[in-house]
Amino acid sequence: MLSIIGLATILVIVLLLLTNRITPIIALVLVPIGGALLAGFGVTEIGEFFNDGISKVINVVIMFIFAILFFGVMQDAGLFDPIINKMIAISRGNVIAVAAGTVIIAAIAHLDGSGASTFLITIPALLPLYKRLNMSPYLLLLLVGTSASIMNMVPWAGPLGRTASVLGVDPTELWRPLIPLQVIGLVLLVGMAIILGLREKRRIARSTELNSVSLEAAATLETVASSPQLDTREDVLARPKLLWVNLLITLTLIGMLVWGIIPAGFLFMIALSIALPINYPSVKMQMERIKAHAPNALLMASIILAAGSFLGILNGTGMLKALATDLVDILPAMIVPYLHIVIGVFGVPFELILNTDAYYFALLPVVEQIVTSYGVDSFSAAYAMIIGNIIGTFISPFAPALWLALGLAGLEMGRHIRYSFLWVWGFSLVLLVVAIIIGII
């Protein structure tokens, strides 16, 4: 009975999330409570389950709030602008260089872990360049989205935060083994961008407009270099004279996160407390910067807290364990120990039918419970599902940031999925193989 109620609880949450009937917070809070009451647990017991669940995610919540605020302030101060503008200037006029440069620019832009800000920075800056060279804007979206997905493995981005809340660990603990994979992934993506750039160059060469496009590109290089500059924030917030100070603060922060001797949430608290008064001495401006980025910080924090409640109830009632045990009896014995890898292989297609919350809060806990009973490490199970799925983040209709990107570039969702899907899925499979070879999975 517990297994049936647990499955029904998860299915109802997934259905509500897929149909956008209610917000993730409401679904993750109310539905598990109903399931626990139906299973015969009292209000006092449910309260205890809630406390247990929240205690496992509170450190993740603290990190998210201050990480989003810190990187928001760095973005306002213009820390990444010179690097991105320089990359644009270097790669202009050469189709292959533009494609490869797009990967690096998007990776730098996504250091804050926010898909929306990444697209706001990269699309307006690079789209005029792509248009002048007659390059497909869908290639731009494919490269930016895939590069951002690799960088999305940082602990202050959504997937690792969700996974950490499910496993009850510090996100930086999950992230450290993934750093080599991120580096390898970016190198491989630059290689893929070169291949796609060569293909794009051949496509342009076949075009009847080749001569006019080449002449226009050659005649307007200076215009191209100056026109796609970053203008997504107000100039009054930029602090170009503090570029090296902000860079030192950020590099020190990342170094300390990798070292792991201080809790991530505390590190971001300290970094924000140093960066904010240095860049904006006025108390009024400090409060304005916090208010500007607070909505994003609080939204993510509230979802993680709601997920803590959900997982606390499912674990406390025994539903999750019962569901995992019964699924093991149903599934073919030869598949069960490798279920995390099977799900990882189909992670990108899952992005088209499950949103991020449903994948990490509903599917991951069940799979993790099943494979760990066969001796698979929890982290290994999580990595297989993360790596297989995360690369497809920005081909999913459930990703709000993707709709923003499509609007900025004037593109269609269906054409984007058709253009990008096989490349993205193939790239995720390559990363899965690399992760197995280097021992992450």
Report what the structure shows.
This protein is mainly α. It has one domain. Helix 6 runs antiparallel to helix 7, helix 7 runs antiparallel to helix 10 and helix 8 crosses helix 15. It is globular, with a radius of gyration of 23 Å.
Which geometry do the CA atoms define?
globular
Q: Roughly what is the average pLDDT, rounded to an integer?
A: 84
Kindly give the count of domains: 1
The ordered string of helix (H) and strand (E) elements is: HHHHHHHHHHHHHHHHHHHHHH
Flag low-confidence runs: 213-228
Structure keywords:
441 residues, mainly alpha, 22 helices, 78% helix
Quick gist of this model?
The protein is mainly alpha-helical and 441 residues long.
Compile the SSE list and pairings.
Blueprint: H1 2-18, H2 24-38, H3 43-77, H4 81-91, H5 95-109, H6 115-132, H7 137-151, H8 158-167, H9 171-175, H10 179-206, H11 210-219, H12 221-226, H13 243-259, H14 264-279, H15 283-317, H16 319-330, H17 339-345, H18 347-353, H19 356-372, H20 378-390, H21 400-409, H22 413-437
Helix pairs in contact: 1-2, 1-16, 1-19, 2-15, 3-8, 3-14, 3-15, 4-5, 5-6, 5-7, 5-10, 6-7, 6-21, 7-10, 7-22, 8-15, 8-19, 8-20, 10-22, 13-14, 16-19, 17-20, 18-20, 19-20, 20-22
